Amino acid sequence: MSAPASDALLIAGKAYHSRLLVGTGKYKDHDETRRAIVASGSQIVTVAVRRVNIGQNAGEPNLLDVLPPEQFTILPNTAGCYTAEDAVRTCQLARELLDGHKLVKLEVLGDAQTLYPDVPATLAAAETLVKDGFDVMVYTSDDPIICKRLEEMGCVAVMPLAAPIGSGLGIQNKYNLLTIIENAEVPIIVDAGVGTASDAAIAMELGCDGVLMNTAIAEAKNPVLMAGAMKKAIEAGREARLAGRMPRRRFASASSPIEGLPF
Predict the structure, then answer these.
(1) Residues identified as active-site
(2) In what residue span(s) does the Thiazole synthase ThiG domain sit (predicted)?
């Protein structure tokens, strides 16, 4: 028996049946991008406005030709921004290019080597964007205090990292994630650090509402096949969370009960 049909991911008032969000960078071409994203089953596709053409460069291939907004929710992101001001301007550009689109993914990076978030700048940008009417999904550190503050500020989803962007290291601090999840009233979506299907399943088993990934799929030897694996991992992890795992025990426990047997 699978998860109930009513088990939807709600973001900014819209329901999604897929809890896998995917990026569009690092593929060899637009054809591979589309094939992988279709295989993933994802409905929310994030696009780096500063790196990918979604209409700002006339005459160049437009990603929206292969991932039309009628079929996918396009999630513009501020990848490559290192100041709050640049991030805000990038979101405003995306809103213009996408005819008033309000849903954005905010990330403000601290340095080019680690791509770790600049948390004070992220807070400043989030405050400005929320006041400007954006629905902000925000990438941040796995700090429970900061995650709660971003939620209280009005972000529609909080996206703590599992490990550094593009590292593929998997979830490095399960206990921080658990604390974030237990105290959240908005979706918590793991963003960054997933390397393979088991990482995605663990995130969902912990209680995350979804997972966003790019490199884990795009840099796989077979991106389309990996996209399908990630789809299954997200679904399996979610179902395991809803089912409720058995308790952990220090010692063995017989598979068949022996109470009441005459020996």
Answers:
(1) 105
(2) 11-257
Rounded distance, CA 45 to CA 242, Å?
A: 25
- Name the DSSP class of 133: T
Q: Binding site for 1-deoxy-D-xylulose 5-phosphate, residues?
A: 166, 192-193, 214-215
DSSP code for 117: B
Cβ atoms of residues 32 and 10 within 8 Å: no
> pTM of the entire structure?
0.92
pLDDT in tens, 28-57: 999 999 999 999 999 999 999 888 888 778
Q: What is the 3-state secondary structure (H, E, C) of 47-106?
A: EECCCCCCCCCCCCCCHHHCCCCCCCEEEEECCCCCCHHHHHHHHHHHHHHCCCCCEEEE
**Which residues carry a binding-site annotation?**
166, 192-193, 214-215
The three-state (H, E, C) secondary structure of 172-240, written as one string: CCHHHHHHHHHCCCCCEEEECCCCCHHHHHHHHHHCCCEEEECHHHHCCCCHHHHHHHHHHHHHHHHHH
Query: Over the stretch 108-149, which tens digit does the pLDDT of each residue have?
Result: 999 999 999 999 999 999 999 999 999 999 999 999 999 999
